[in-house]
């Protein structure tokens, strides 16, 4: 999964083009910061991918908890980065304006860590249920789990819409589930458990206690407005997972 050196990163160039088309002045500050951080770490990774990815073996057994922070902001290749960051661009524009920058940054930070924890729980359950120790070695990187969680939030604040998934018109409340299955079928290397973890964390926020817990911890700094009905930009391609036996 290491990126090839010495080649043109077409996905990165296309991402920069997309950002330029939107205009830096039209991208909210936290969203722009997330884009910049992911691009910077793609070009200057903290460590090799096998040393930043999150798995049951690395995160739970070996107690490498820093991987919860590093894995979401590292990507397998330029196209992995492209699909995730284009999705982040549109979701960030819609949600950051609605939730306000401070609360949106708080959501990104909490979701990034919590999704890694839920991912490990799901992989551990699969390992126990299927009696297959390989699941503890599945090591995931990428921002797509967070994007699935943000999609759940976006659909919650903008109900009753229709999203386009692979050319099919799907009610938005079901779109993330359809995408979960579709991506797994189209790209078996994508992290099914990582994407599912994102959906579950999103539901914990919109239907469970997570939002209240976050408010309590933050001392009530959030400010929520009535949702508008912006254009829907759907399709989250790209959480990478591979078997790490380092």
Write the layout of secondary structure elements.
Layout (H helix, E strand, L loop, with lengths): L9 H13 L6 H15 L12 H6 L5 H4 L7 H22 L1 H30 L7 E4 L2 H14 L4 E4 L2 E4 H15 L5 H15 L3 H9 L21 E4 L3
Antiparallel strand pairs: 1-4, 2-3
Helix pairs in contact: 1-5, 2-5, 5-6, 5-7, 6-9, 7-9, 8-9
Describe this structure in words.
It is a single chain. By secondary structure, the protein is mainly α. Helix content is 58%, strand content 7%. It is built from 10 helices and 4 strands, in the order ααααααβαββαααβ. The strands form 2 sheets. The protein has a two-stranded antiparallel sheet. A two-stranded antiparallel ribbon has the order 2-3. A hairpin with a 2-residue loop joins strand 2 (162-165) and strand 3 (168-171). Helix 1 (10-22) packs parallel to helix 5 and helix 2 (29-43) packs antiparallel against helix 5 (78-99). The longest helix is centred in the middle third of the chain and has 30 residues, at 101-130. The chain is globular, with a radius of gyration of 17 Å. Mean pLDDT is 86; it is low at 224-239 and 241-246.
Residues in helix, %: 55-70%
Radius of gyration: 17 Å
- Rough shape? globular
Based on helices, strands and strand pairing, what is the structural class?
mainly alpha
Instruction: Return residue spans where pLDDT drops below 50 for at least 5 consecutive residues.
Output: 224-239, 241-246
Which sheet architecture does the biggest sheet show? 2 strands, antiparallel
Oligomeric state of the chains present here: single chain
Average pLDDT reading: 86
What is the terminal separation in angstroms?
A: 13 Å
What's the total number of strands?
4
Per DSSP, the total helix count is 10
Strand and helix order:
HHHHHHEHEEHHHE
């Amino acid at each position: 999964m290491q990126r090839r050196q010495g080649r043109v990163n077409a996905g990165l160039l296309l991402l920069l083009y997309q950002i330029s088309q939107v205009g830096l002045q039209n991208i909210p500050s936290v969203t722009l910061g997330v884009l910049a951080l992911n691009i910077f770490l793609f070009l200057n990774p903290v460590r090799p991918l096998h040393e930043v990815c999150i798995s049951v073996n690395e995160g739970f057994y070996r107690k490498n908890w820093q991987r919860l922070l590093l894995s979401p902001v590292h990507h397998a290749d330029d196209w992995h980065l492209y699909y995730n960051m284009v999705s982040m661009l549109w979701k960030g524009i819609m949600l950051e304006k609605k939730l306000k920058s401070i609360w949106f940054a708080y959501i990104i930070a909490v979701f990034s860590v919590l999704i890694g924890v839920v991912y490990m729980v799901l992989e551990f359950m699969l390992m126990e249920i299927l009696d297959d120790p390989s699941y503890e070695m599945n090591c995931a990187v990428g921002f797509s789990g967070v994007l699935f969680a943000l999609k759940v939030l976006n659909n919650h604040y903008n109900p009753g819409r229709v999203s386009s998934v692979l050319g099919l018109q799907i009610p938005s409340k079901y779109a993330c589930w359809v995408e979960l299955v579709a991506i797994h079928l189209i790209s078996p290397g994508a992290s099914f458990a990582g994407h599912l973890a994102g959906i579950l964390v999103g539901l914990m926020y919109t239907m469970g206690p997570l939002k209240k817990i976050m408010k309590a911890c933050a001392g009530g700094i959030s400010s929520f407005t009535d949702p508008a009905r912006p254009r829907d930009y759907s399709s989250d391609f790209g959480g990478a997972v591979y078997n790490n036996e380092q």
